[in-house]
Amino acid sequence: MKLTINNYDGNGAVDYSACVVEGQTFRVERKLNAPSVLTVSLLPSAAGLPVPSRNGRVLLADDSGNLFFTGYVANEPAMMLAGEASSGPMYVAEMSAISDEVLLDRMALAQQYASYNQSAQTMMSGLTGGLGATPITAGGANLQATIGQFIADHGMVWSEGAAELAASTRGAYRVQNGVLTAEPIGNSIHKLLESDGSLSLSDLQAAQVKMLANDITVCGETEPSAYVTEYFEGDGVTALFDLTELPFVPTAAEARPVEDSFQGPSFNLMLWQISDNGYLGMSSNGLTCAGGNGLDGSIYLAALGQVELGGSIIFETNGVQFGANTQGTLNSIYNGFISKATCVAGFQISQSSGVTSIAPLIGGVISGSTFTPVSGHIYTLRLRLYCNENQRVQQYYYYEGDSGLMASGGQIVSATVTFVLEVQDTTGGVAGAPTILYTGTVPTSLSTGLYVPLNSDELQCSIGNVTVTRGGPTWVMSTPPNGTPMVRRLGTTAQGADCKVESTGKLRFYPGSIPQAGEVVAVSYRTRHRAVARVASAASIASESAGGLPGTAAWAGTVSKPAARSSQDCANAAQALLALATSRASAWAGTYTGWNYEQSGDVWPGDVLIMESTSAGINANLVVRQVRIDLTCSQPGLAKYTIQFANDWADELSIKTSATIPVDVWLPQQPQAAAPLANLNALSITSVTASQIDISANVTPPTGGGFEVRRRDWAFGPGMDADLVLRSPVPNFIIPRTAVMEQYYIRMYDGSTPPNYSEFSTAVFVNLPL
């Protein structure tokens, strides 16, 4: 064995093999999706060598050059008194080194906004590229499975982020000799067969360590539930209205996904991808663009990841100043490739006869009104987005099935999206009234978009800062007496807003925007609910009960990674866990000991052992979780491999769970027999009068089904008619009004027995005079 250490003292890599304390072993510990660690006891003074220094470069290989470990000395070695020699006290240096990714873990990993619907490989490249120049290169990186959502947790270091991305897609990463390798579990296999003598049963310990479960309940995060539209009437004085239910709001980590004031010496690569050809830079005015090459989509500043087009989002470019030549787009959302034709919504900047104009660009087409900025003035370009679906991309949950890697989930949630584009003069720090250029609603299955603050054909401009703020799926409209409906802008007064909806359930209008007497205010929001789902395997229950014993074996807990953001995510996670929990092959765990595997390709966590033994009753593919290598400086060299393996049900792999049940969850009383019907997220209230509420469901009901209206939520079903208002077989129907304050809940149902319903209600709350 050969151990070399470069202390960066001018002597290069020095051989420390002779310094290993006699009778002591090298130990290399490799864990799945975690840095590797080398520990060794050295007596450097015996060879006249210095004590290894912190940050020293460490390589450990056998005599044939097969690498066991590469990394860096993590801390100063601990010095232990070994005894006295003629030259004086002798000390043993207890050295510990961590594999190469320790260099990345030392770098600041800024909190990233969420990335959506991209491959684990793309997200990992963004995680690494955001650190700037690094000594690590991507080698055999090949994790192409898609992740629904990834958010870097507060305080997360690179190896933790890489571990989460790899594990979520049932993959493994490692860094050795400066090269990052990321690949699916089982990309490398090792056969251990009793029939050919490659399996030593005396070196094997294995058991199916976890009980079967065939009834799975999964809890998740707090999610939006009922789709509420609540009506109030203004009196010209009242500025504060109490909502009947508490609205769903995003977490603090999600509320401000992007913010950059462009005050650093260079662009923040944890936020942006840049193509500039020297046209983009920083100045006292912030981001500065000095022109372009005339080609659309060649000079740009774009967000590093995708933005989920759900809930309410405000995209702002503030402190915008225009130069002499202006041609391009600002503050825009694109559908993938950056081109005006793929612009979902944004501001097109153009110039004709020396006059600059700003126009909304919707679906690649100029729409709405134009605005002519005043030379020398400073502006905010603000793009508002609203969708009553907060989650547009469902999570993927990966597991090993009979035919290989399987995935549950990943569905795209279709919904309509409303855009409002406005320009606000902020010259001299005085905010003028915003000018609305466009308001419109478009149906779209597009779930994510690429945020591009700047796309320059020939733009001469500067941007002081960029902010993106996310709220819950909340929207406010109002209709003055004998007037037409208008959008009431949500946000802060600095964002040119009329009002805000507070998490405590209050709608607060700002001075100057208070509804006039007789003005009808309609607030659309989603209520809160703890995500949960329960599924069961009828086949497994029947099989387990064959001997007259109870057939149901229940498991309940919470899925933490990938985060279960909705009840549908919980159902998808539960289906994946159910497949694992009913497969006894997934319950295997144990250890196997072998020798000198480095000479036949080596063994790493994430490899798979194909183990077959008729006498031991095992025939399974086993996932390697940890490899401990004990090496001795002998001739020939001996490397003892202690391999720990565990399959997905024995020890969680791609789906992280806990047995904790949230205190605010209502656990389902029965497993889900069928997938719920679609929610009525496109239902519209066409009018509210003193005598009736006109409803258009905007969807065709299932055969034999229709729409059920009740006065109480979570009480849908046959034989529960105390709260029943009506059932309609057609999508357009009328709810008669009977009181000033009324609450109605609507769900779609089908013709099955018993009927199947929508998962969540669409609700109408009215507080209007008769």
Could you explain how this protein is built, in words?
The protein is mainly β and 770 residues long. It folds into 6 domains: 2-99; 103-184, 3-Layer(bab) Sandwich (Phage tail protein beta-alpha-beta fold); 189-210 and 586-646, Elongation Factor Tu (Ef-tu), domain 3 (Beta Barrel), CATH 2.40.30; 215-223 and 530-584; 251-471, Jelly Rolls, CATH 2.60.120.200; 684-767, Immunoglobulin-like (Sandwich), CATH 2.60.40. The chain contains 6 helices and 54 strands. β37 and β38 form a beta hairpin.
At a glance:
The chain has 770 residues and is mainly β. Helices cover 7% and strands 47% of the residues.
Rg calc: 31 Å
**Roughly what percent helix?**
under 10%
Please give the count of helices: 6
Instruction: Assign the CATH class of the largest domain.
Output: Mainly Beta
Tally of separate domains: 6
Largest sheet: 14 strands, mixed
Overall 3D form? flat
CATH architecture of the largest domain: Sandwich
Helix vs. strand class: mainly beta
Count of strand segments: 54
Q: What average pLDDT do the residues reach?
A: 93
